[in-house]
């Protein structure tokens, strides 16, 4: 790997149906030095496009700004319907530090991109998550509440002034949230019971909001076709709340209902460190360093 | 990663003392497109230099051949003493498939390098391990038996004709073994007992030669400063005999002596897949693919 620093970016665009437009939005991520398009998937019901890319900060910044320009030009939120909440042509752009980068650098990059898209496209930007300029702006759902339609008025409120760009909703492209965050790991633990009530109770006991683990969001879910239930987990910082800890705590909580774990699953991408740390726990590895992982060395 | 195929190479040179010569031998691995020097370490007692590098097959071939030329020029085995057995200025060159490469490709590369060094430097080459042309040549220790000194006569025996180069020991550089093999993982499991006899019994029960796991070599070792013992393991193919399986089998065998595992350790480099597979086992991951590992995708 010739890249020194790697940051991941997962921009969400409000176009999940028109394949020609999707192609144009994704085009700036192709064939660029210092940028690698890992994945993109559009959902017709959500009418939304989620792109996953990695790159060097500088190159990533340029490519993302270019794609935002394309989306602002192609997408009119006044014509947009879909199941997923959205407030802009580009709804949200998270930056995630992956290699040789600190959260501070990801925050810096998010602000740089924010300043550029505000200037170039007259787009109001809310900084969110780790980049947020006030606690009430950290949570994306809070920022987005009211969506495109409600944003016309909301953005005029003193507490919802944008961090960059005009204090006025873009007529067609709305507003965008840009920020830095830790990698999310979507992790589900499957239970031996078909009783959703039990799965929900276990989910509550392991999640942060109800007294569980600090970086765990969880809910009970039915898997009807398999006649089981699952604790569906979002690990919001696997470097602090380890994957194995959530897994073992689900096991411990399940015991009280005579329920066992039948398996677990990772949805989407996961940084290797999350799983290597888990292996390290179960093997009781002494003095282990990520520098011993061949691929980490190759990527250095 | 701009490289498509990655092969690892761990050449062993018979020079562990003269730092200037070591620098010259390692030089061909520096600053080359398609080759990355990961590590090199020299041992004065062994009088040996072990280099770890990765690269694309073509670039790796050229760099290794160049380094062999330097070693043949600088090292005279007639003057060489050291604790480690050796039969040549370059003692052994293993090639290990890492990414997007099959064992067949690694074997092919080993034969290409073998043909070149035989032709360019008049060096007799034995193909070993997966590249071996007969079963009695697979094991490096068997090939090397007699070392540089004994090779003068051994190489004239019909069953020890070299695969490439003259059937005569090189006057100063001896002979070299070149071949393809799986990655080795050096993995030690520490026991709660200071009784070496127990560690040795456990090692015997888990290793292949005595009826244990197919790709495990093991021996009992004393860790005197910690007052414990360890089962020191060489995992010769972690893709077939998984790390967790060796660990759990040591635990099971230890139970008969009332001994527990106090920890384990990985020595040197380990491919991420070995640990990710271990995490996958303990978490009971369903439908997991290495394609979900972010770093695997980045390196694609």
UniProtKB/TrEMBL annotation, chains A, B:
Keywords: Cytoplasm, Folate-binding, Histidine metabolism, Transferase
Hydrolase in keyword set: no
Involved pathway(s): Amino-acid degradation; L-histidine degradation into L-glutamate; L-glutamate from N-formimidoyl-L-glutamate (transferase route): step 1/1
Localisation per UniProt entry: Cytoplasm
GO molecular function: glutamate formimidoyltransferase activity
Source organism: Bacteroides vicugnae
Coiled coil (residue ranges): none
Phylogenetic lineage: Bacteria, Pseudomonadati, Bacteroidota, Bacteroidia, Bacteroidales
The EC number(s) this enzyme carries: 2.1.2.5
Protein name (database record): glutamate formimidoyltransferase
Residue intervals of the Formiminotransferase N-terminal subdomain domain: 5-182
PANTHER family registered for this protein in UniProt: FORMIMINOTRANSFERASE-CYCLODEAMINASE
Stored Pfam families: FTCD (PF02971), FTCD_N (PF07837)
The UniProt record lists the keyword Cytoplasm: yes
Domain named Formiminotransferase C-terminal subdomain: residues: 183-297
InterPro entries: Formiminotransferase_C, Formiminotransferase_C_sf, Formiminotransferase_cat, Formiminotransferase_N, Formiminotransferase_N_sf, FormiminoTrfase_cat_dom_sf, FTCD
